[in-house]
Sequence to fold (271 residues):
Amino acid sequence: MKRRSKNKTNERYVIPSLDRAVRVLGMLADHERGLSLADMARASDIPKSTLFRILVTLRKHHCVTTDLDGRTFRLGSHLWELGNAFADQTDLFRVSKGYMERLADQCGETVFLSKLEDGEVVYLRRMESPKSITVVKKLEPRVPAHCTATGVALMAWLASEEVDDILDSHGMEAYNEATITDRPALKQRLREARERKYAVVDGEYNSDLLCVAAPVLDHNRRPCAALTVAMLSSQADSQARIDDVGQAVRETAQRLSHELGGNERATNNHS
Fold:
């Protein structure tokens, strides 16, 4: 999982020990089989003695756990409890489930719920269809906005200045030959996505996937989330198929927006 730290946090207020602890959790999240203290020391610039103290503290609070030999560290159960608390406290997470289930059944594909966080797309929930292609399950939990359908759908409903801030902070990295890295071209794509109320991106981040996404709007007509249908590019074999999925995603996102007190009227101009 590729993580960036290009945000506007004032470093003067960052607590170094807490910052390192979060980085340690991020490393463990990337390795299902766990990591040893030596592994983490090699993969980071954190001294081994400091890493050990961080791990002991995290283990005290059940944020990490170890194997029986005490040498391999993994994420602990308290993080699961925190995640469940987040879901319980979020209306979006609770309300979206039924909409995602129906959309997955209608399209026969995997559906994702996501949001923008610090200028990147964060995937919150996945809903499978019995017909879903297994490879779609491998979407990373945090991805760039400029070359994903989810990011385009969300940015299309932001003010142009907000979009510029995201691009200035994160850039427009090319992940393959299909990735759009020209800012005016992206702005045109945002205008088109806003007009039809959904975005389509084919293979610009993950070359195997075509994704269709539509924004979920809050009561201020701002994008609080997006619904995304992901499918293999090879399975999206006609424009009619893409249009059908786009209409289904758009209509589902609009109904979810309505339940959350939002609507789909756009007011921003991307110039």
